[in-house]
Give the backbone structure.
Amino acid sequence: MCLGIPGKIIRIETGMATVDVAGAKKEASLMLLEGAAVGDYVIVHAGFAIQKIDEKEAAETLKLVDELIEGMSEV
Amino acid sequence: MKYITEFRKREQAKGLVNRIIEAATKPYCIMEICGTHTHAISRYGVRESLKGALRLISGPGCPVCVTSTGDVDRAIELSRRGGVILATFGDMMRVPGSASSLQEVKAAGADVRVVYSPLDSIQMALDNPGKEVVLFAVGFETTVPTVAATILTAAERGITNFSALALPKLTPPAMKALMDSGEVDIDAFLAPGHVTAIIGAEAYRFLAKDYGSPCVVAGFEPIDALYGIYMLVRQMEEKRSDIEIQYKRVVTWEGNLKAMEVMDKVFEEADASWRGIGTIPMSGLKIREAYSSFDAEERFSITPAAEVPDPPGCACGEVLKGLITPEECKLFATACTPETPVGPCMVSSEGTCAAYYKYEIRSA
Ligand code: SF4
Protein backbone atom coordinates (compact mmCIF):
# COMPACT_ATOMS: atom_id res chain seq x y z
CA MET A 1 0.00 0.00 0.00
CA CYS A 2 3.00 2.26 0.31
CA LEU A 3 3.52 1.95 -3.40
CA GLY A 4 4.79 5.18 -4.91
CA ILE A 5 5.26 5.77 -8.59
CA PRO A 6 7.88 8.04 -10.13
CA GLY A 7 6.63 10.68 -12.54
CA LYS A 8 7.52 14.07 -13.99
CA ILE A 9 5.63 17.23 -13.12
CA ILE A 10 4.42 18.79 -16.36
CA ARG A 11 2.05 21.42 -14.95
CA ILE A 12 1.23 23.08 -11.66
CA GLU A 13 -1.99 24.90 -10.93
CA THR A 14 -3.20 26.05 -7.52
CA GLY A 15 -1.37 23.44 -5.54
CA MET A 16 -2.19 20.58 -7.88
CA ALA A 17 0.40 19.06 -10.19
CA THR A 18 -0.21 17.16 -13.38
CA VAL A 19 2.33 14.36 -13.35
CA ASP A 20 3.38 12.29 -16.33
CA VAL A 21 3.62 8.75 -15.03
CA ALA A 22 4.94 6.54 -17.81
CA GLY A 23 2.90 8.43 -20.39
CA ALA A 24 -0.30 8.60 -18.35
CA LYS A 25 -1.32 11.90 -16.80
CA LYS A 26 -2.10 11.84 -13.09
CA GLU A 27 -3.22 14.59 -10.76
CA ALA A 28 -1.22 14.94 -7.57
CA SER A 29 -1.65 17.38 -4.72
CA LEU A 30 1.45 19.34 -3.68
CA MET A 31 0.20 19.94 -0.14
CA LEU A 32 2.88 17.66 1.28
CA LEU A 33 5.88 18.80 -0.73
CA GLU A 34 7.76 22.05 -0.51
CA GLY A 35 9.42 23.62 -3.53
CA ALA A 36 8.31 21.28 -6.30
CA ALA A 37 8.58 22.77 -9.79
CA VAL A 38 7.62 21.85 -13.33
CA GLY A 39 10.23 19.44 -14.68
CA ASP A 40 10.90 17.81 -11.30
CA TYR A 41 10.52 14.08 -10.90
CA VAL A 42 8.47 13.13 -7.86
CA ILE A 43 7.11 10.04 -6.15
CA VAL A 44 3.31 9.97 -6.31
CA HIS A 45 1.41 8.11 -3.60
CA ALA A 46 -2.39 8.10 -3.13
CA GLY A 47 -2.88 11.29 -5.11
CA PHE A 48 -0.07 13.26 -3.46
CA ALA A 49 3.51 14.04 -4.43
CA ILE A 50 5.40 12.86 -1.36
CA GLN A 51 9.04 13.41 -2.27
CA LYS A 52 11.28 14.69 -5.04
CA ILE A 53 13.62 12.35 -6.87
CA ASP A 54 17.26 13.39 -6.86
CA GLU A 55 18.65 12.78 -10.34
CA LYS A 56 22.30 12.88 -9.22
CA GLU A 57 21.75 10.32 -6.48
CA ALA A 58 19.93 8.02 -8.90
CA ALA A 59 22.91 8.09 -11.27
CA GLU A 60 25.29 7.57 -8.36
CA THR A 61 23.38 4.48 -7.17
CA LEU A 62 23.52 2.93 -10.64
CA LYS A 63 27.24 3.70 -10.84
CA LEU A 64 27.89 1.99 -7.50
CA VAL A 65 26.05 -1.10 -8.69
CA ASP A 66 28.05 -1.23 -11.92
CA GLU A 67 31.33 -0.80 -10.07
CA LEU A 68 30.47 -3.57 -7.69
CA ILE A 69 29.59 -5.96 -10.47
CA GLU A 70 32.59 -5.07 -12.61
CA GLY A 71 34.87 -5.48 -9.61
CA MET A 72 33.59 -9.01 -9.40
CA SER A 73 34.22 -9.99 -13.00
CA GLU A 74 37.85 -8.88 -12.69
CA VAL A 75 38.46 -11.22 -9.76
CA MET B 1 10.18 4.43 -17.76
CA LYS B 2 12.63 6.69 -16.04
CA TYR B 3 13.67 5.56 -12.54
CA ILE B 4 12.04 2.19 -13.10
CA THR B 5 13.54 0.29 -16.03
CA GLU B 6 17.13 1.13 -15.20
CA PHE B 7 16.61 -0.34 -11.73
CA ARG B 8 15.19 -3.58 -13.13
CA LYS B 9 18.02 -4.72 -15.39
CA ARG B 10 18.43 -8.46 -15.30
CA GLU B 11 22.22 -8.49 -15.80
CA GLN B 12 22.81 -6.13 -12.88
CA ALA B 13 20.43 -8.09 -10.70
CA LYS B 14 22.25 -11.32 -11.47
CA GLY B 15 25.59 -9.71 -10.74
CA LEU B 16 24.33 -8.44 -7.39
CA VAL B 17 22.96 -11.86 -6.44
CA ASN B 18 26.41 -13.35 -7.08
CA ARG B 19 28.08 -10.59 -5.12
CA ILE B 20 25.78 -11.19 -2.14
CA ILE B 21 26.26 -14.96 -2.18
CA GLU B 22 30.00 -14.49 -2.37
CA ALA B 23 30.06 -11.97 0.49
CA ALA B 24 27.82 -13.78 2.98
CA THR B 25 29.78 -16.21 5.10
CA LYS B 26 26.72 -17.01 7.23
CA PRO B 27 22.99 -17.40 6.45
CA TYR B 28 22.04 -14.11 8.10
CA CYS B 29 18.39 -13.50 8.79
CA ILE B 30 17.19 -10.27 7.21
CA MET B 31 13.68 -8.98 7.76
CA GLU B 32 12.02 -6.79 5.18
CA ILE B 33 9.49 -4.75 7.10
CA CYS B 34 7.45 -3.41 4.26
CA GLY B 35 4.74 -5.16 2.25
CA THR B 36 5.89 -3.42 -0.90
CA HIS B 37 9.33 -5.00 -0.38
CA THR B 38 7.74 -8.38 0.33
CA HIS B 39 5.87 -8.17 -2.94
CA ALA B 40 8.91 -7.03 -4.94
CA ILE B 41 11.25 -9.57 -3.36
CA SER B 42 8.85 -12.40 -4.21
CA ARG B 43 7.93 -11.08 -7.64
CA TYR B 44 11.49 -10.73 -8.88
CA GLY B 45 12.61 -14.01 -7.39
CA VAL B 46 15.05 -12.37 -4.98
CA ARG B 47 14.12 -14.66 -2.07
CA GLU B 48 14.46 -17.71 -4.26
CA SER B 49 17.79 -16.69 -5.78
CA LEU B 50 19.35 -16.08 -2.35
CA LYS B 51 17.99 -19.25 -0.80
CA GLY B 52 20.67 -21.05 1.16
CA ALA B 53 22.89 -17.95 1.35
CA LEU B 54 20.53 -15.79 3.41
CA ARG B 55 17.21 -16.08 5.15
CA LEU B 56 14.88 -13.32 4.01
CA ILE B 57 11.79 -13.08 6.18
CA SER B 58 8.82 -10.74 5.96
CA GLY B 59 7.59 -8.52 8.75
CA PRO B 60 4.42 -6.68 9.77
CA GLY B 61 4.61 -4.08 7.02
CA CYS B 62 1.38 -4.52 5.14
CA PRO B 63 -1.09 -2.00 6.60
CA VAL B 64 -4.06 -4.03 5.38
CA CYS B 65 -2.77 -7.20 7.03
CA VAL B 66 -2.09 -5.65 10.43
CA THR B 67 -5.54 -4.05 10.70
CA SER B 68 -7.26 -5.98 13.45
CA THR B 69 -10.45 -7.95 12.89
CA GLY B 70 -12.15 -5.73 15.46
CA ASP B 71 -11.31 -2.62 13.44
CA VAL B 72 -12.64 -4.19 10.22
CA ASP B 73 -15.83 -4.98 12.17
CA ARG B 74 -16.12 -1.34 13.22
CA ALA B 75 -15.84 -0.14 9.61
CA ILE B 76 -18.49 -2.66 8.60
CA GLU B 77 -20.75 -1.53 11.42
CA LEU B 78 -20.41 2.09 10.26
CA SER B 79 -21.12 1.22 6.64
CA ARG B 80 -24.40 -0.34 7.69
CA ARG B 81 -25.69 2.83 9.30
CA GLY B 82 -28.23 4.72 7.26
CA GLY B 83 -26.94 7.71 5.32
CA VAL B 84 -23.28 6.71 5.52
CA ILE B 85 -20.98 6.35 2.53
CA LEU B 86 -17.89 4.45 3.57
CA ALA B 87 -14.86 5.38 1.46
CA THR B 88 -11.99 2.92 1.57
CA PHE B 89 -8.78 1.95 -0.18
CA GLY B 90 -9.50 -0.96 -2.52
CA ASP B 91 -7.19 -3.32 -0.61
CA MET B 92 -9.49 -3.31 2.40
CA MET B 93 -12.60 -4.50 0.55
CA ARG B 94 -12.02 -8.21 0.88
CA VAL B 95 -10.38 -8.33 4.30
CA PRO B 96 -12.48 -10.61 6.47
CA GLY B 97 -13.97 -9.17 9.64
CA SER B 98 -15.36 -11.59 12.17
CA ALA B 99 -18.57 -12.20 10.19
CA SER B 100 -18.19 -10.56 6.79
CA SER B 101 -16.08 -8.22 4.65
CA LEU B 102 -16.78 -4.75 3.27
CA GLN B 103 -17.26 -6.34 -0.12
CA GLU B 104 -19.98 -8.56 1.26
CA VAL B 105 -21.82 -5.76 3.04
CA LYS B 106 -21.60 -3.72 -0.15
CA ALA B 107 -23.19 -6.56 -2.10
CA ALA B 108 -25.90 -6.60 0.56
CA GLY B 109 -26.65 -2.95 -0.09
CA ALA B 110 -24.29 -0.85 2.04
CA ASP B 111 -22.79 2.18 0.29
CA VAL B 112 -19.09 1.31 0.27
CA ARG B 113 -16.91 3.04 -2.32
CA VAL B 114 -13.28 2.59 -3.25
CA VAL B 115 -11.05 5.67 -3.42
CA TYR B 116 -7.60 5.96 -4.98
CA SER B 117 -6.71 9.07 -3.01
CA PRO B 118 -8.13 10.15 0.36
CA LEU B 119 -8.85 13.49 -1.32
CA ASP B 120 -11.49 11.74 -3.45
CA SER B 121 -13.61 11.41 -0.32
CA ILE B 122 -13.81 15.22 -0.07
CA GLN B 123 -15.33 15.39 -3.54
CA MET B 124 -17.65 12.58 -2.53
CA ALA B 125 -18.81 14.62 0.48
CA LEU B 126 -19.42 17.68 -1.73
CA ASP B 127 -21.37 15.60 -4.25
CA ASN B 128 -23.52 13.98 -1.56
CA PRO B 129 -24.54 16.77 0.83
CA GLY B 130 -27.30 14.68 2.40
CA LYS B 131 -24.93 11.86 3.32
CA GLU B 132 -22.11 11.33 5.79
CA VAL B 133 -18.87 10.33 4.09
CA VAL B 134 -16.52 8.33 6.31
CA LEU B 135 -12.99 7.59 5.14
CA PHE B 136 -11.71 4.28 6.46
CA ALA B 137 -8.05 5.20 6.64
CA VAL B 138 -5.49 2.54 7.39
CA GLY B 139 -1.85 3.06 6.55
CA PHE B 140 1.70 3.68 7.60
CA GLU B 141 3.70 6.89 7.56
CA THR B 142 3.63 7.02 3.74
CA THR B 143 -0.16 7.28 3.69
CA VAL B 144 -0.88 9.08 6.98
CA PRO B 145 0.19 12.54 5.73
CA THR B 146 -2.24 12.17 2.80
CA VAL B 147 -5.05 11.48 5.30
CA ALA B 148 -3.94 14.42 7.46
CA ALA B 149 -3.87 16.69 4.39
CA THR B 150 -7.38 15.54 3.52
CA ILE B 151 -8.67 16.38 7.01
CA LEU B 152 -7.00 19.80 6.83
CA THR B 153 -8.62 20.38 3.44
CA ALA B 154 -12.03 19.46 4.84
CA ALA B 155 -11.48 21.88 7.74
CA GLU B 156 -10.37 24.71 5.45
CA ARG B 157 -13.30 24.25 3.12
CA GLY B 158 -15.78 23.98 5.98
CA ILE B 159 -17.00 20.54 4.95
CA THR B 160 -19.26 19.16 7.64
CA ASN B 161 -20.32 15.78 6.26
CA PHE B 162 -16.86 14.23 6.16
CA SER B 163 -14.99 12.31 8.85
CA ALA B 164 -12.32 9.63 9.07
CA LEU B 165 -12.08 6.35 10.90
CA ALA B 166 -8.33 6.79 11.09
CA LEU B 167 -6.14 3.90 12.19
CA PRO B 168 -2.63 5.01 11.29
CA LYS B 169 0.27 2.84 12.36
CA LEU B 170 3.92 3.70 12.91
CA THR B 171 6.81 1.59 11.68
CA PRO B 172 9.67 2.17 14.17
CA PRO B 173 7.61 1.16 17.28
CA ALA B 174 6.64 -2.09 15.54
CA MET B 175 10.30 -2.86 14.81
CA LYS B 176 11.13 -2.13 18.41
CA ALA B 177 8.31 -4.39 19.66
CA LEU B 178 9.60 -7.22 17.46
CA MET B 179 13.11 -6.84 18.86
CA ASP B 180 11.83 -6.61 22.43
CA SER B 181 9.66 -9.71 22.07
CA GLY B 182 12.82 -11.77 21.58
CA GLU B 183 10.67 -14.29 19.70
CA VAL B 184 12.34 -13.92 16.37
CA ASP B 185 16.03 -13.85 15.58
CA ILE B 186 16.58 -10.93 13.24
CA ASP B 187 20.14 -10.04 12.29
CA ALA B 188 19.31 -6.99 10.21
CA PHE B 189 16.48 -4.91 8.77
CA LEU B 190 15.70 -3.80 5.25
CA ALA B 191 13.71 -0.64 5.97
CA PRO B 192 10.93 0.72 3.75
CA GLY B 193 11.78 3.38 1.19
CA HIS B 194 8.55 5.35 1.12
CA VAL B 195 7.80 5.32 4.84
CA THR B 196 11.32 6.64 5.29
CA ALA B 197 10.89 9.24 2.53
CA ILE B 198 8.50 10.81 5.04
CA ILE B 199 10.04 10.09 8.46
CA GLY B 200 13.74 10.18 7.50
CA ALA B 201 16.37 7.50 8.09
CA GLU B 202 17.38 9.02 11.42
CA ALA B 203 14.22 7.38 12.86
CA TYR B 204 15.96 3.98 12.88
CA ARG B 205 19.00 5.10 14.86
CA PHE B 206 17.73 3.17 17.92
CA LEU B 207 18.12 -0.13 16.03
CA ALA B 208 21.85 0.29 15.67
CA LYS B 209 22.30 1.96 19.04
CA ASP B 210 20.11 -0.12 21.34
CA TYR B 211 19.98 -3.44 19.52
CA GLY B 212 23.19 -3.52 17.49
CA SER B 213 21.08 -4.24 14.45
CA PRO B 214 22.17 -3.03 11.01
CA CYS B 215 19.48 -1.31 8.97
CA VAL B 216 19.45 -0.21 5.34
CA VAL B 217 16.67 1.87 3.81
CA ALA B 218 16.10 0.52 0.32
CA GLY B 219 13.99 1.26 -2.72
CA PHE B 220 11.51 -1.15 -4.26
CA GLU B 221 12.95 -2.07 -7.63
CA PRO B 222 14.93 -5.33 -7.74
CA ILE B 223 18.31 -3.57 -8.08
CA ASP B 224 17.46 -1.41 -5.07
CA ALA B 225 16.39 -4.33 -2.88
CA LEU B 226 19.41 -6.42 -3.89
CA TYR B 227 21.89 -3.62 -3.38
CA GLY B 228 20.27 -2.88 -0.01
CA ILE B 229 20.70 -6.53 0.97
CA TYR B 230 24.31 -6.40 -0.18
CA MET B 231 24.91 -3.34 2.01
CA LEU B 232 23.47 -5.22 5.01
CA VAL B 233 25.65 -8.26 4.36
CA ARG B 234 28.71 -6.05 4.06
CA GLN B 235 27.91 -4.41 7.40
CA MET B 236 27.53 -7.76 9.12
CA GLU B 237 30.71 -9.14 7.58
CA GLU B 238 32.56 -6.06 8.76
CA LYS B 239 30.90 -6.42 12.19
CA ARG B 240 29.29 -3.00 11.90
CA SER B 241 25.79 -1.98 12.82
CA ASP B 242 24.92 1.26 11.10
CA ILE B 243 21.92 2.90 9.56
CA GLU B 244 22.53 3.36 5.83
CA ILE B 245 20.47 4.65 2.93
CA GLN B 246 20.47 2.78 -0.36
CA TYR B 247 17.46 4.68 -1.77
CA LYS B 248 19.28 8.00 -1.78
CA ARG B 249 17.39 9.37 -4.77
CA VAL B 250 14.28 9.66 -2.56
CA VAL B 251 15.26 9.21 1.09
CA THR B 252 17.11 11.69 3.30
CA TRP B 253 18.15 11.58 6.95
CA GLU B 254 15.58 14.15 8.05
CA GLY B 255 12.65 13.08 5.83
CA ASN B 256 9.91 15.25 4.39
CA LEU B 257 9.52 17.97 7.00
CA LYS B 258 6.47 19.49 5.36
CA ALA B 259 4.62 16.15 5.34
CA MET B 260 5.55 15.52 8.97
CA GLU B 261 4.32 18.97 9.94
CA VAL B 262 0.93 18.27 8.31
CA MET B 263 0.78 14.88 10.01
CA ASP B 264 1.65 16.37 13.39
CA LYS B 265 -0.93 19.12 13.05
CA VAL B 266 -3.77 16.62 12.76
CA PHE B 267 -2.55 13.56 14.66
CA GLU B 268 -1.02 12.69 18.01
CA GLU B 269 0.58 9.45 19.15
CA ALA B 270 -1.59 6.74 20.63
CA ASP B 271 -1.53 3.02 21.35
CA ALA B 272 -2.53 0.84 18.43
CA SER B 273 -3.74 -2.69 18.04
CA TRP B 274 -1.92 -4.83 15.46
CA ARG B 275 -3.39 -8.03 14.12
CA GLY B 276 -1.48 -11.00 15.41
CA ILE B 277 0.72 -8.87 17.64
CA GLY B 278 -1.74 -7.11 19.91
CA THR B 279 -1.48 -3.62 21.35
CA ILE B 280 1.86 -1.89 20.92
CA PRO B 281 2.25 1.26 23.03
CA MET B 282 2.45 4.49 21.04
CA SER B 283 2.59 2.65 17.72
CA GLY B 284 -0.32 4.49 16.17
CA LEU B 285 -1.89 7.91 15.87
CA LYS B 286 -5.23 9.46 16.71
CA ILE B 287 -6.91 12.63 15.55
CA ARG B 288 -6.15 15.60 17.81
CA GLU B 289 -8.86 17.31 19.85
CA ALA B 290 -8.80 20.35 17.54
CA TYR B 291 -9.99 18.20 14.64
CA SER B 292 -12.29 15.92 16.62
CA SER B 293 -15.31 16.90 14.50
CA PHE B 294 -13.60 14.93 11.71
CA ASP B 295 -13.04 11.92 13.91
CA ALA B 296 -15.60 9.23 13.03
CA GLU B 297 -15.06 7.57 16.41
CA GLU B 298 -16.35 10.70 18.15
CA ARG B 299 -18.93 11.63 15.60
CA PHE B 300 -20.64 8.26 15.58
CA SER B 301 -19.70 7.31 19.15
CA ILE B 302 -18.23 4.03 18.06
CA THR B 303 -16.67 1.95 20.74
CA PRO B 304 -13.05 0.84 20.64
CA ALA B 305 -12.42 -2.35 18.70
CA ALA B 306 -13.02 -5.57 20.55
CA GLU B 307 -10.23 -8.14 20.59
CA VAL B 308 -11.35 -10.73 18.07
CA PRO B 309 -9.28 -13.87 17.60
CA ASP B 310 -8.01 -14.78 14.12
CA PRO B 311 -10.09 -17.29 12.16
CA PRO B 312 -9.44 -20.86 13.32
CA GLY B 313 -6.29 -22.28 11.75
CA CYS B 314 -5.09 -18.93 10.37
CA ALA B 315 -1.52 -18.23 11.37
CA CYS B 316 -1.40 -14.63 10.12
CA GLY B 317 -0.13 -13.46 13.50
CA GLU B 318 2.92 -15.66 13.28
CA VAL B 319 3.48 -14.81 9.62
CA LEU B 320 3.36 -11.08 10.46
CA LYS B 321 5.95 -11.52 13.18
CA GLY B 322 8.22 -13.46 10.85
CA LEU B 323 7.99 -16.56 13.04
CA ILE B 324 6.82 -18.81 10.22
CA THR B 325 6.65 -18.60 6.44
CA PRO B 326 3.24 -18.94 4.76
CA GLU B 327 4.01 -22.48 3.62
CA GLU B 328 4.12 -23.48 7.28
CA CYS B 329 0.46 -22.50 7.76
CA LYS B 330 -1.76 -25.55 7.38
CA LEU B 331 -4.36 -23.64 5.40
CA PHE B 332 -1.89 -22.15 2.90
CA ALA B 333 -2.86 -22.94 -0.70
CA THR B 334 -5.48 -25.43 0.49
CA ALA B 335 -8.35 -23.77 2.34
CA CYS B 336 -6.70 -20.37 1.98
CA THR B 337 -6.06 -18.99 -1.52
CA PRO B 338 -6.40 -15.49 -3.01
CA GLU B 339 -9.90 -16.49 -4.25
CA THR B 340 -10.96 -17.75 -0.83
CA PRO B 341 -8.75 -15.89 1.64
CA VAL B 342 -9.01 -16.93 5.27
CA GLY B 343 -6.68 -14.27 6.66
CA PRO B 344 -5.74 -10.75 5.57
CA CYS B 345 -2.20 -11.83 4.63
CA MET B 346 -3.79 -13.64 1.68
CA VAL B 347 -6.08 -10.76 0.70
CA SER B 348 -3.82 -7.81 0.19
CA SER B 349 -1.54 -8.05 -2.84
CA GLU B 350 1.23 -7.03 -0.45
CA GLY B 351 0.35 -9.63 2.14
CA THR B 352 3.10 -12.16 2.68
CA CYS B 353 0.83 -15.14 2.01
CA ALA B 354 -0.49 -13.62 -1.22
CA ALA B 355 3.04 -12.85 -2.42
CA TYR B 356 4.19 -16.40 -1.67
CA TYR B 357 1.09 -17.86 -3.31
CA LYS B 358 1.51 -15.84 -6.46
CA TYR B 359 5.24 -16.05 -6.96
CA GLU B 360 6.88 -18.64 -4.79
CA ILE B 361 4.67 -21.68 -4.80
CA ARG B 362 6.58 -24.78 -5.81
CA SER B 363 4.72 -27.02 -8.22
CA ALA B 364 6.12 -30.04 -6.41
S1 SF4 C 1 -2.16 -18.87 4.51
FE1 SF4 C 1 -4.14 -17.91 4.92
S2 SF4 C 1 -4.78 -18.79 6.85
FE2 SF4 C 1 -2.61 -19.20 6.67
S3 SF4 C 1 -1.60 -17.46 7.69
FE3 SF4 C 1 -1.77 -16.93 5.54
S4 SF4 C 1 -3.68 -15.78 5.39
FE4 SF4 C 1 -3.74 -16.87 7.38
In short: The mean pLDDT of chain B is 91. The domain at 5-63+171-237 of chain B is CATH 3.40.50.11750 (Rossmann fold). Chain B has three domains: 5-63+171-237, 67-165+255-299, 316-361.
